[in-house]
Amino acid sequence: MDQTYFRRGFGLKKDIEGTLTADYASAVVDALKAGEYTLAVGNLTFRLAREFGFCYGVDRAVEYAYETRAKFPGRQLHLVGEIIHNPHVNQRLRQLGVKFLTHRPGEDFDYSPLRQDDVVIIPAFGVTVRDFEQLRAIGCVLVDTTCGSVLNVWKRVEGYAKDGYTAIIHGKHSHEETKATASQVTRYPGGRYLVVFDKAEARLVCDFIEGRGDASELARHFHGKTSAGFDYSRDLARVGIANQTTMLAGESLAIADEFRESVMRRYGEEQVAEHFRSFDTICSATQERQDAVVQLLEEPLDAMVVVGGYNSSNSCNLATLCATRGIPTYHIEDALCIDPAGGSVRHQPIRTKVEVVASDWLRGVRRLGLTAGASTPNNKIGETVARVCESAGRLVELERVLGGKD
Questions:
Q1: Same domain flag for 315 and 200
Q2: 277: exposed, middle or buried (Cβ count in 10 Å: 0-12, 13-18, 19+)
Q3: Which of 87, 252, 281, 306 lies at a CB distance of 3.0 to 4.6 Å from 331, suitable for a disulfide?
């Protein structure tokens, strides 16, 4: 048995349960769930989406990281990048003695600090084939927390590459997961990929498939988003669709439909199967959280708060779902973004990468919707509710509702 590679945990869940509860549980969230995802505090009513926060894959990755600390108490632990896209969870791991391996944009990870007796945690996003091979060559212990939904996508793109189809990946080309997924096709001779971010970029590629557009223009637009030596005339003749698991589910499906239609126009209905493949690789947890937000938005709400890391793709997409339906939406990283004294909130508007400050954001708000990205722990949701109550002068009433618990 290989004693340097682990994927299935160490059976230490009971040993770490108390620490996990102390680090991430929330009496506020417990009260919301007990009240049918509703909590009334004075004239404020909070409505929580029925699917929110940590998904199974994130739960597993975080638990496995804590188990790793318990399993190897005397060993140096390293983490490739971030375990998930939540600053508080990553900071907690630092406090547990985990060192983070980093890299500059466009450069490789620096593995020079690693020694053979070190333990390295692979994050929920997975790592590229190249990174995995480098880590194996060092000979250190690897603890692989790659999400099962990500592995499912890898299986699909590997199948595309093996059968001579170019993988069209709906995702953010700089995201760790998409980089790892794209690298899987390079395991096969002639494996090709192209990453499209949205329907507009997909349309550019589809136009070329249908006989319109210029290859040199596409090459400039998709620079750094394709496999090496990508030939638009050759490599778009047979395509297979995949996606980063945290993208907007509806958009991924629409992009797949767009490519199928273009292939049909180019080659005819009877030839579609020869030139086009698509499998449903949308993460069920991502789908469930997006569906739950859509369902919540059917209710009368005055505003929505999305709690999650600004670099969290699924958190950003939840905010997009809310904002594009016309409801005032505030994507915050944590409760500290809310200023009770000033009556303002720092938040990241959709499709931007900068925080802005909204003043008097709670004016007229009586029903506030809440959700959280799949990498957001419950305590950060609970802290947000408490901070909102403090801003509204309702903190004492919240404590009363919770029976004096925080």
A1: no
A2: buried
A3: 306
In tens, the pLDDT along 63-116 reads: 999 999 999 999 999 999 999 999 999 999 999 999 999 988 778 899 999 999
Note whether 215 and 99 are same-domain residues: no
In a domain, 8, yes or no: no
SS (H, E, C) 283-335: CHHHHHHHHHHHHHCCCCCCEEEEECCCCCHHHHHHHHHHHCCCCCEEEECCH
Domain that holds residue 309: 24-55+285-401
Distance CA 29, CA 35 (A): 10
Looking up tokens 């692979």 gives 122
Q: What is the pLDDT of residue 404?
A: 53
- How many distinct structural domains can be found in the chain? 3
- Supply the pLDDT for residue 105: 78
Q: What is the pLDDT of residues 21-58, one digit of tens each?
A: 999 999 999 999 999 999 999 999 999 999 999 999 99
Question: Number of H helices and number of E strands within the chain?
Answer: 16, 17
CATH label of the domain that carries residue 302: 3.40.1010.20
Residue 100 lies in a domain: yes
User: 177 an active-site residue?
Assistant: yes
Read off the pLDDT of residues 16-25 as tens digits, 9 standing for 90 and up.
999 999 999 9
Active-site hit among 51, 67, 82, 177: 177
CATH number at residue 142: 3.40.50.11270
Query: Can you give the pTM of this predicted structure?
Result: 0.93
